Description:
This protein is α/β, with parallel strands linked by helices. It has a single domain, classed as Spore Coat Polysaccharide Biosynthesis Protein SpsA, Chain A (Alpha-Beta Complex), CATH 3.90.550. About 25% of the residues lie in helices and about 25% in strands. It is built from six helices and 14 strands. The chain has helices spanning about 35-45, 60-70, 85-95, 120-130, 200-205, 225-240, and strands spanning about 5-10, 30, 35, 50-55, 75-80, 105, 110-115, 135-140, 145-150, 155-160, 165, 175-185, 210-215, 220. A hairpin with a 2-residue loop joins β2 and β3 (about 35). The longest helix has 13 residues, at about 225-240.
Amino acid sequence: MKITNAMVLAAGLGTRMRPITNSMPKPLVAIAGRPMIDYVLDTLVAAGVERVVVNVHHFAEQMESHLAGYRGLEILISDERAALMNSGGGLVKGLKLLDRSPAFVMNADLFWIGEKPGGRTNLEHLADVFDPARMDMVLLCVPLERTTGHNGKKDFSLGADGRLKRYADGDPNPVVYAGAIALLPELFDDAPQDAFNLNIYFDRAIARGRLYGVEMAGQWLTVGTPEAIGEAEETIRRFGNASGEGA
């Protein structure tokens, strides 16, 4: 299916990135000369997304100023200055600014490089797999060996039929959640209106056999600490992709 709406979760405090985030929001921390969130926004543009909601809290004015200068997307702001809503609450609040059509959800500090030039992007693959009749959500996933900056935790086991379950020691085909989802906003019609963690809906979908995953192409990067910046930049140099093209 074609997905033209998206939500980017960008309101966190970035506590592990201190002292850098004592004066700026984590999504604006530069990696290879570009703010992290720009890699994410470029990924959405490459997949044909037209409209994106970004939630803001920490140094919200800096985020708004930067996003106002980004070209290629209609960007709407979900303001969480008054109170952080956690991943689930922030998503529910932000999706209200979009219509009811399918949407991508992405984290502002997780991105990837090394997709095949001219081929189907990872998000297009995610959209093609998403079938609301069988799935609550489909998550982009990556094997641990194709991650940079990750803590080594295995999030899910990816079944041969595409279903995901929480990883337990010894499970086959362990994967890391790569920070991108395809879903329908109506999934959250019964959601709380205050802060809650999105993992509640992951576990609910697993219990119903409706959480699916697809394995991404390329190398996945997460930058959680100041020390991880250099590792991410070295990976980008290694892939010859410091411009962010194909991110």
